[in-house]
Amino acid sequence: MILPSGVSLLDRILNGGLNTGLFTHVYGEAAAGKTTLALQFVTNAYRLNMGTIYVNSESTAPVRRLEQMTTRSYGDVENMVKILAPKGFNEQGALIDDLELYLRENTKLVIVDTLTRYYRLELEDKKTNYAKHRELNRQAGVLKGLARNHEIAVLVLNQVRSQMKGVDDFEPVAKNILDYWSDYTIKLRVAQGTGERAIKRVVPEGEFSDGLLYLVESGFSSERPMRKSEIG
Prior knowledge:
Layout (H helix, E strand, L loop, with lengths): L1 E2 L4 H6 L4 E2 L3 E6 L5 H14 L3 E6 L6 H8 L3 H4 L3 E4 L4 H9 L9 E7 L3 H6 L6 H22 L2 E6 L1 E3 L7 E3 L2 H7 L2 E7 L5 E8 L6 E7 L2 E3 L11
Parallel strand pairs: 3-7, 3-10, 4-5, 4-6, 6-7
Antiparallel strand pairs: 1-2, 8-9, 10-11, 11-12, 12-13
Helix pairs in contact: 2-3
């Protein structure tokens, strides 16, 4: 099954939307719109009467943005959107292990925002780096298994780090691990125009793999919103 976002360009780049049974990896710089992209799918899943489990490892909750995009209070959508908030890397791993316990018959989407935040914090202790790499790999593998075994779309958001090639380039954190498990890989970046975001499908390669999205109150739009000076 394919879960569309309702945004034509985004769905086209993803060959229709998020595929159940597959692991989709989205990475981008800060403020690139990763959470908004994820909530675009949450919003459309809600409208299609499909449930979402949202694992939020970020320091801020997605509730206010979700309310803005669904035009509903969280109390109205809570039965369809379960938000779980681990407090550390080990707790995140335990929660991912237990995700099956939270699944309902209508659950079709699992989001982790972001998989690597606590992992990066743990890497400050170099003595345990290998164990942290192994644990991140294990968590990603569990998520891939969840997607396959339960026909659920898994969407994992990821942070980035600069590459040596140039100051304007970047790559995903734990690239080798995420590359191994990902069926789809999407890169988001801040573009030049106000609210403009460049999106590119890195994996799989093929036609219709990139374009521009625009941040608006309701989420993302495929069309640039008109400026006040252009109205009338």
